[in-house]
């Protein structure tokens, strides 16, 4: 799956099941599917989409709704919208997320690809995912965060991460909230609050 307006590299597909309709209208071509299943090494997803390609050369319009499950966190940066996310953040994701499991999630994209990340409200991008057993090596020479149970939420240019549980060394993490209001800002500013319970030696 090659969508350079969203992803920095093609998304591999191991299995695709469903019906794709290719239709010609007076001013556009349309690719659509009511129920398509895509499986690769990272996740299992069901997709409903309408993809309009205007004949006048304007940016394609994508309306997509997807739900996914049984995912792996190893290659999460494949699915990060790179035009929205600063390069430093993508580099950090590549280096720091060491693994994890995606329990379930869903995503919606509605708008012209050229308008993404919809800073003026021209469309909508929303993603929610539930994860467990996530491991993050967040900074050199610091202990890794392990056994994280996280909820991830993206809404257009904003991101919120809620941590229900996790460990650092022998201490427990809980009630963690990390929020970036505008991923497109340079530098993007993250606000983090968390509670920790454990021995003072940590």
Helix-strand blueprint:
Layout: E1 15-17, E2 21-24, E3 28-39, E4 44-54, E5 61-72, H1 87-96, E6 97-112, E7 124-136, E8 145-155, E9 158-168, E10 171-180, E11 190-197
Antiparallel strand pairs: 1-3, 2-3, 3-4, 4-5, 5-6, 6-7, 7-8, 8-9, 9-10, 10-11
Care to give the gist of this entry?
By secondary structure, the protein is mainly beta.
Structural class comes to mainly beta
Number of strands: 11
Terminal CA distance: 45 Å
Low-confidence blocks of residues = none
Strand content: over 45%
Order of helices and strands: EEEEEHEEEEEE
Mean pLDDT: 85
Radius of gyration: 19 Å
Number of helices: 1
Largest sheet: 11 strands, antiparallel
- Morphology: elongated
Secondary structure: helix percent: under 10%
Salient structural properties:
202 residues, mainly beta, 11-stranded antiparallel sheet, 11 strands, 5% helix
Structural features, described:
The radius of gyration is 19 Å and the shape is elongated. It has one helix at 87-96, and strands at 15-17, 21-24, 28-39, 44-54, 61-72, 97-112, 124-136, 145-155, 158-168, 171-180, 190-197. With 202 residues, it is mainly β. The mean pLDDT is 85. The longest helix has 10 residues, at 87-96. Strands 1, 2, 3, 4, 5, 6, 7, 8, 9, 10 and 11 form an 11-stranded antiparallel β-sheet that branches. It contains 1 helix and 11 strands; from the N terminus they run βββββαββββββ.
């Amino acid at each position: 799956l090659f969508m350079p307006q969203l992803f920095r590299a093609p998304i591999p597909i191991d299995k695709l099941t469903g019906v794709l309709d290719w239709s010609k209208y007076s001013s556009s071509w349309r690719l659509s599917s009511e129920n398509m299943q895509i499986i690769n090494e990272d996740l299992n997803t069901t997709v409903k989409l309408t993809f309009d390609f205007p004949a006048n050369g304007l940016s394609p319009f994508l309306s997509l709704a997807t739900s996914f499950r049984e995912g792996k966190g190893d290659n999460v940066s494949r699915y990060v919208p790179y035009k929205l996310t600063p390069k430093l953040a993508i580099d950090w994701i590549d280096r720091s997320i060491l693994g994890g499991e995606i329990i379930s999630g869903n995503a919606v994209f509605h708008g012209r690809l050229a308008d993404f990340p919809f800073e003026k409200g021209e469309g909508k991008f929303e993603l929610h995912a539930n994860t467990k057993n996530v491991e993050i090596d967040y900074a050199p020479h610091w202990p890794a965060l392990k056994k994280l149970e996280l909820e991830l939420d993206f809404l257009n240019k904003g991101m919120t991460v809620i941590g229900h549980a996790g460990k650092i060394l022998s201490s427990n993490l809980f009630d963690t909230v990390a929020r970036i209001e505008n991923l497109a800002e340079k530098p993007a500013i993250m606000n983090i609050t968390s509670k920790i319970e454990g021995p003072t030696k940590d």
